[in-house]
Every structure is written in C-alpha cells, then in structure tokens.
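FW: tagging you since you asked about this chain on Friday. Here's the raw sequence from the shared folder, copied in full. Didn't touch anything.
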Amino acid sequence: MKLISDYPDRICLKGMSFYGYTGVFDFEKQEGQTFLVDLTLCFTHLRSVDTDVLTDTVHYGEVFEVVKTVVESGKYNLIEHLAGNIISAVFDRFSMVEAADVLVSKPNAPVDGVFEAMGIHIFRERLSLGKAVGSQI
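HL: got it, structure written out here
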C-alpha cells in the first residue's frame, strides 16, 4: 500500500460543511447535526497540470455534490462508515481518482467535555478496494 505522499498530484477540498443524520443515538438520527469534511483526491499524474483542460481533471463542484449526497442522505451509526461511503462514492463517480484521503469531523459530538471536534481520518487506494486504477466502475 502506498502513502498519500506517494501521489505527487492532489486535489484538496477543505472545510466542506453538511448537515447530516449520522450517530448512534436516536436524537442524532432525528435532529441531525453539522459534519465537516476534508477530502484529498490523489493522482500519479494529473493531465490537467499540462493541458489546462477541464476534462483532464476532476470537477470540484461535482465532487462536492457527491460528498453532499452521501452525508445528507444517509443515516449511519458511525462516522467511520460515513467516511468509507464517501470514498466509495468518489471512486464510483470519478474513475481517474487513484486514491482518496478523507477526514470527517463531528464538531457537536455528544461527548461531555471541551473539544473542537471528534472525527475519523481514512486513506484508501482504489486498488485496495479490489478495483483497478482508472477503470470505469
């Protein structure tokens, strides 16, 4: 398995904010709360660096909409599962993404104490999921 630093080209979407219904408690699933998502898309060589052509990259707005749909439409128990579904949806929609790194933060986690956020950070390569790099899924 490679590390994120093994991918020289990366697209970063930071601080995306969505309202979702993930949590183990009933009130979390019913009332919902804010989730923050940082997503890094990894490439060995992103063609748009050389071509300056939109079709040679991943459209940030489309990525945002995919993440928004996963966070806002799903009701999961764990943010770990939510994070995995975000990466799976990105791989399903954007075949040129070779790996992805996601941080899902829950600033209003139901924990008694002072904290900025609770979260999960995962990195997955397309190959580690049994899907060929660059394949249409």
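FW: The domain at 4-129 is CATH 3.30.1130.10 (GTP Cyclohydrolase I, domain 2).
HL: agreed, and Confidence is low (pLDDT under 50) at residues 131-137.
FW: great, closing this out.
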